[in-house]
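Fig. S4 source data, part A: sequence.
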Amino acid sequence: MTRFTIASFNVKNLIGPDREYYKFQSYTPEEYAWKKDWMAEQVLKMNADIVCLQEVFEEEALRDVIDEADRLGSEGNEATIPDRSKGYRKKAIFRKLAYTPYTDAAFAFAPNVNDGEPGQRRPGLAVISRLGFVDAPEVIQHLPAPLVIPLQELGGGDAGHYQITRLSRPILKVRIAVGSRVITVFNCHLKSKLGEFITPAGAEYAPEADLTQYDPIGRAMGAMRAGLRRMAEAWVLRAAILTELQAGHPVMVTGDFNDGEHAVSSEIISGERPFRNYAWMLRHDAIAANDRYSKEENEQITEAVEAVKLHSAEKLFVRKSLRDMVYTSAFGGVYESIDQIYMSRHFLPDFDKSISEMEYFSVLNDHLTDGSHAEAPYNKLASDHGQIVAHMRMKQE
């Protein structure tokens, strides 16, 4: 019976020492050593077969972290795992304790096409897989054609359009063989809630950035721009997911969604929840008050919706365990999950063509502090996100 684990880890600005990533922000060698050590400990605790990471500026720094995790893991194995001369070495407890190094793991790093000069850097994504990759990883960021979203006035008139030509951060798509099955995994990091402010021509900064001249309506407009971009990026990801699902491929989607499960952007990615009974609903082409969908059409519509819907690993865990709270982010007194692992119905235990199911869901969030500002103590070096791990068991064919 094949088991595997998949994790999502927003590392918060992983870059080497003395490299300015954002304006006036960099790590001293001592700070980098601290961050590397902390990250290695988290990787060791997760011990996941597939790790999807966000906010990675440089592949070299990530490999540095993984090497440190492997060193710590090997030391731990030496201290706790019995050698082959011990008859009890195969007991389940030692399988749980054992750390598997990433020595032969496959690495995929997707740099950000928006990356700039020191002080204006933009992070990318990475996936590490002990199970290797099937085919070459794919990166989605610079769109082959602009995404044009037509807008309409409530009265029916033309309201212009919203357009993007590239994503704020890449989406990394990999295909991974687990046993005899191949799973498509997407790693994403959608646009944050940080407002998008426009700097006028010839100005050094956007007016809304000057907090001494606080402009609440301008800052609200910046938040709206960010929300539009995040939803557009969610649609691009959804389109890529549907391509895989319609080809019959099981799909898992991980990453930093920068929104909760019930936000519009997250629901764009996961898909619609089917209505309880479409036979209650007035038909789209109704010509009379009682023109409703038939029982057969209700079943057809429900299946069409369910076939392409994704499901939250966190919510499956909460429902199974009766645990009522999981969070991966703490900011301004709000504790929520903005990091998710979504999966297609191929991983649901009650789906008749299920290939796998989740046995457990881990959250590493003891390090989170509600500092509410990037400058708060400790926030700079440890991640401001919790790490999540889905523990999966493949079914017998």
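Fig. S4 source data, part B ends here. The radius of gyration is 23 Å.
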